[in-house]
What we know:
single chain, alpha/beta, Alpha/beta knot, 7-stranded parallel sheet, 17% strand, globular
Amino acid sequence: xxxxxxxxxxxxxxxxxxxxxxxxxxxxxxxxxxxxxxxxxxxxxxxxxxxxxxxxxxxxxxxxxxxxxxxxxxxxxxxxxxxxxxxxxxxxxxxxxxxxxxxxxxxxxxxxxxxxxxxxxxxxxxxxxxxxxxxxxxxxxxxxxxxxxxxxxxxxxxxxxxxxxxxxxxxxxxxxxxxxxxxxxxxxxxxxxxxxxxxxxxxx
Length: 204
């Protein structure tokens, strides 16, 4: 059974009722040819998304991957910064990684959140494409954060995005981030930071 590490240090910059969680999904996701694959856990995704998540008061950042060997790799990274040399070398990195939890499946993530909040999470998937799925705007999701105490789980895809099966099972899909032109290939780290600022930033 997976357990949560201690809650994140510090507080959000503004008060919201709903706890926000992030899950970075490595399976099932698409590759460039739209095959369903499992992507690798990367050091930079763990570090950078954790730093953004803690900055904006996210309760927990889940890294979801079914491959045990990749879990072992991620655990070494986390242990280095939590209890190894990194824990004294860079305390701010230690603080950020304290909110990271590894999970094998999204179902496992749901169970952990339910165990610790007593509520079923409101699941919001993300996609860079408009597609056919009903969308929720950043504005409406911000409003929900202020009036509902039901936890929100924000799903981020790796590879070439979350599968249609995940999008269909989600309670909502967040509108895509759009720039000035037709190019739209943000890294998942950049997308996560932008989304969190729009939902939880002081200017939101």
